[in-house]
Amino acid sequence: MNTNDNSDNPGFKHYRIGDFAKFCGVTSDFLKHYEEAGLINVVQRESGYRYYPFDQSARIIEYMRLRNYGVTVKEMQGVLKGGAEDAFALLDDKAQAIRETVRRLDGLLEEHERLAAWYAKRKEKPVDWEIREVEPYCFLPHTNSQSFRKDERIYQLVRTWGMWLPVVKSALTIEPSLLRDNPESLHWGFAVPASLLERYGLPVNDAVETLQFGKALVFHFNELEGAFNMADVVAGRHPAFEPVRELGFHVTGTGLLINEMKFQNDEKGLNMGTGRFIIPIAR
């Protein structure tokens, strides 16, 4: 809010925008934004320069407090002109949103620790495999080989699930019995262990599939060339299938190819991937 003033208003000292921002611990853009919203009074002198009266610093501190709660500039006018009950109701809502954010960030940090420990093993042995019991995964399909899937239920969840990457993984499901007749049965989507979905309260609906593994061969890889080449998967040429064949196992159900990271070297024409392939097996 601009006010024309030909005097120095001796009651308060006036400051140019850079100094006022520095003294308040904010940026010049912060002051301009709040001024444009009509939340700060600014004195414009005959010289054309704008000055910020000292008394506006108290407003700045109030705005900073509300901003740290996540209160928007648009919401601030209502908060400051309303009563305490309305203000605290809004702050309660903002605090709950902060709790949700903290819970998600804690989950991301925990997953990073798991991923870092996993990667430390991959540095020693980039490609490795093991046979073990694997818990069920929940899978939200998203695309086939050429396009997004047409299922509105997916798009009710995809934003929230995407916010939980890397707890949620980008992954490809492989149903061997369907590949011979329908290569487009390969589907990329989002996968998460059922225990973590329950722990973090990720939303679900009927679009979410449950993948049961039980006994599985888990093929770990780091910077593996062509790791996510769908043609190789369809043709059974993915390196993960080699130990399955060598050990005399057969695939008993849907496999899950998990993408932790993809790397592309355009100069060498290489596409490499880091992740793991979970393949349910039996003799």
TrEMBL record:
Transmembrane segments: none annotated. It comes from the Bacteria. Gene3D superfamilies: 1.10.1660.10. SUPFAM superfamilies: Putative DNA-binding domain (SSF46955). Residues 14-82 form the HTH merR-type domain. CDD domains: HTH_MerR-like. Keywords: DNA-binding, Repressor, Transcription, Transcription regulation. It holds the Pfam family MerR_1. InterPro entries: DNA-bd_dom_put_sf (IPR009061), MerR-type_HTH_dom (IPR000551), MerR_fam (IPR047057). This is MerR family transcriptional regulator. It comes from Sutterella massiliensis.
